[in-house]
Specification:
mainly alpha, 2 strands, 78% helix, 264 residues
Length: 264
Amino acid sequence: MYLSKNSLVKIILTASAFLIIGAVFFCAAYFIGKSEISPKPTIIIGAVFTSLAFISFPTVIYADGISKPFSEGDRLVRRDLQPEKFILFYKELTNKENSAVIKERYDMLELLYLSYRLLDDRRGALEVVQRMKTELKEKYRPKAAVYYAELLYEKGDVQTADGLLSEAEKKDGGSELCAMVDAARRSARARAVSDRETEEKYYTGLLSAAGIFKADNAAALFAHFRLYEICKEEGRDKEAAEHLKYCAENGGRTAISKLAKKLS
């Protein structure tokens, strides 16, 4: 949760306004009750506004502290491919001078990790993984382990990475964790052991998925660039050129986009 001081003030003012309105109707009901008119409708209205005062607290907190930050972050990273903008946005959210509540969330740290990956900043990505391990609840640690394994595969430490994935899949992380482990094995691990066939099948399948399984722009960018590298290594220059063109034209402000433009 990332709640700014301004949002906290808004929550308090909103709740106070509902309470005041409710109190006004209750007072009106008191005086109406002394006449022959039934105060019941006025009491009901007062109760509604009083209830809204209490409902507004969790509603606004969720909207301003969780939903809006994630929605904006998801747009910047996965759709618009603007990792640097997200990193600045995240720093503003976690600026203690402007924040009333800072409670790290997995979904936001995941976006931060992805941002550093899009910038090809492995050190930054590793720091985020370490934060996932220390600042989040234990249930998120297996997912952090999968991301750490990906980084280790890139360094060539296959044995350690394999151990991390084996331990992660033993945890009760549901279908999402299983999918993460499977993806890491078919992509990062396959690359580390030079299993191009498995890797190409994975990325091709990722790009061909439709509906709710369709890859977001960030995932598609990684897939196209890796397929470019595979095709280039195997001498399939025409296919490689198509994947590289996609990266150059649709890569946003990422390291892949910059490299693709240089190679085009």
